[in-house]
Amino acid sequence: MTMSLTAAAVREAGARRTTKRRNLAIRLGSVVALLLVWEICGMLTPRIFLSPFHETVVAFWRLCRDGTLVAPTLSSLSVLFAGLAVSVLLGVPLGLLMGRYVRLNWALSPYVNGLYATPTVALLPLLSLWLGLYIAPKVAIVVLLAIFPIIKNTYAGVATVGHELLEPASSMQASEFQIARYVIAPAIVPFVMAGIRLSVGRGIVGLVVGEFFTAQTGLGGLLIRYASNFRTAEMFVPIFVLVALGYGLTVLVAALQERIAPWKETERDLGQ
Amino acid sequence: MTAPDDAALLAVRARVRRSKIDRFVIVAMTLAGFLSLWEISGHLTNPMFFAPVSEVLIAFWQQIIDPSHTLLSGLVETLAVLVPGFLIASILGLVLGVLMGRSNLALQILDPYVTIFYNTPRVALIPVLLLWLGVGDTLKIVIVVLAAVFPVSVNVTAGIRDISAQFTEPARSMNATEGQLLRKVILPATLPYIMAGLKLGLGRALTTVIVAEFFVSLSGLGGILHAASSTYQMAKMFAPAIILAAMGITIDGLLTYLERRVLERYRA
Predict the structure, then answer these.
(1) B30 to chain A nearest CA, in Å?
(2) CB spacing of A243 vs B120 below 8 angstroms
(3) Chain B contact probe: residue of A35, A106, A241 with most B CBs at under 10 A
């Protein structure tokens, strides 16, 4: 009896492994097929529209080795991280306060919701008039895109902390600070992390737009330079770095979320 | 029996009404504070960099009654890109999402690309598409589709994968065909996910259309905004920005309302 059960389990695990392997094979095949199409199209069309895939790979290697890629990547990363740091440092306290004080929420929520739904990239020309062309307007546009998901998620996190958690604490004479530190903070961490994850993608959009339309620095500036010189092989290199950055940071934040706040798997991603 | 209940009810109603009045007063006061701050700082700063709210409103009005209708035609141009782009993206996203939600083969084939594009900053593709498609409306529509399609498809796929077994098994056992299953069970159950995806996609579409307008041609609201700011006409610059903000808020509000209606219908 037990023998046959184990046998069945082994067989099932084997079947699952086969499915997994087959799925992976299909995925790989699909990617290889697209790269082949790219390679062939690149050979058939004029160089100024598209270069074959292998030339982009070669260009990537070359740009890495001669250091052309390093400085723009570092510059983009510092703007992005500065923007995200400001968003977290301003957004989390603001969301907390709005969650705790209903009057503050009434006063501020029209602006927060309004700006969240507004395409804030429209403010970039204004920002660059006020703040110049270098780091400041870029960080500002990253913040304008990234801060609202953090505020709203923090607020939503505070809202989930119900009376059943707050009342025992206040009946034991917990101070407002203690309530924030020991009751609210643990409850909102998953929400804040979810907010940050949403902010990463929006922040990168802000970064690229900032680099396009103020002084053309960083990966966005590099992309514009290559595209306007019709260097189609090199053009895809900064795009790939940006994709990797977006994907990598999203995965990193998700992993951090798992580490820091494993006690709550359910989180809500609010809006974009 | 009913009298004390009524009294309690009235007291609660009175409290609700009072808090509503409180809220209204607070919102009105913050708005007044915000506008007066804007007005004062507008008068104090160099007119090249900022304009008081009164001048912004006057410039807005002048642009509306302007016989050449620049603002209006800008709005029409932006909508002419946004509406078809968003419609195509919604339909395509729905089809893609259903395919990937229902068929493992489609999921495995398409998932790498959806993941990559979902994580690509869409605006980074504008220079590439500019090379391939030129500066016309095609480029703008394609970029709007690219911006909005993946949030829709990812949400639909997630929705279908989430609801699947518990809803589909009973229908299956009653010999429902795949078409019936889709129309009568799966799509209604995934509606909340579809709405969430549409909202996300819309936000992305709006941002992308403005960046495309900044980039390729001085048309549409983004073009007007860019032209006004590069000639330091501060008061004029705010009109398209205000319209864009109103557009974002209105459409977002509309979709939120629809979402709530849909959710209510399926709760009941």
Answers:
(1) 6
(2) yes
(3) A106
Choose the closest CB to B237 out of A126, A224, A227: A126
Nearest-by-CA chain A residue for B222: A122
* Element housing B241 (H / E): helix B234-267
Indicate the residue of A26, A49, A272 with minimum beta-carbon distance to B132: A49
Q: What is the CATH number of domain B53-267?
A: 1.10.3720.10
Nearest CA in chain B to A25: B108
Chain A interface test: which of B16, B20, B120 (most A C-beta within 10 Å): B120
Which comes out higher in pLDDT, residue A267 or A145? A145
Instruction: List, for residues A101-144, the tens digit of each pLDDT value.
Output: 888 888 888 888 888 888 888 888 888 888 878 888 999 999 99
Does the domain at A61-260 match CATH 2.60.40.10? Answer given as: no
Instruction: Report chain A residues whose CB lies below 8 A from the CB of B232.
Output: 129
Q: Which amino acid is at A24?
A: L
Shortest Cα–Cα distance, A3 to chain B (Å): 31
pLDDT at A268 over 50: no
Domain chopping of chain B, boundaries: 1-44, 53-267
How far apart, in whole angstroms, are the C-alpha atoms of residue B206 and residue B147?
9
- Distance in angstroms (rounded) separating the CA atoms of residues B178 and B156: 17
Q: pTM (2 decimals)?
A: 0.83
